[in-house]
Write the structure tokens for this entry.
Amino acid sequence: MTAEPERLHPTVMAHVAARDFEDGDVVNLGVGLPLECANALPAGREILLHTELGIVGFGPVIEDHTEADPFVLMVGNLPVTANPGMAFMSHDESFAMIRGGHLDVAVLGGLQVDREGNLANTQFEGKPAGNLGGAPDLAYGAKRTVILMRHTTNDGAPKIVERCTLPLTTPRCVDRIVTDVAVIDVEDGELLLREYAPGWTPDAVQAITEARLTVPGDVREISL
């Protein structure tokens, strides 16, 4: 049996997701893999990171907790750097930003994404109830929603499917999927394979994807 090519490390996945942030973007990072993007922001661009906890404009995650300010936290209770000009706000003001369409990008994790861009990311199979949190607001309210997730489950089941079987978080909200093997855009009910990880091929990516991928002529290997 042929060994599977190497998959991208989460740090590299975060850089792939973050490389397209534009100067001045207001970006919210969801829990899990998306939090890696806080330490992968493009150099030379001002990216205003937003957390629904009520901060805009914070910096990278602080690894040494002895240097952390307990009042400067992002989701997941991760301590972050206090940047000059950073703003605090109440919880309702933070969600007013989200629901008012003031976020340029939301980077969220995913359990399933389907061909129509439907997202399921709050309730595992067999779990009696999910934990919605702010995910529906973020996925629907952001101008662009990027899903950062592994391409398959721990058991090897596809997470990019023809139709979500898990309870939906938000319908038809996903613009781009970044996984450990590919970059895929959702456009008009099609899944367009834009890039694939080094060592992979479009056919290899399709083999672990339930939904049918469209492969444009300019598909290329992922590069940073």
Remarks:
- The chain has four helices and 16 strands.
- The radius of gyration is 17 Å.
- Residues 122 and 130 are 5 Å apart (CA to CA).
- The domain at 10-211 is CATH 3.40.1080.10 (Glutaconate Coenzyme A-transferase).
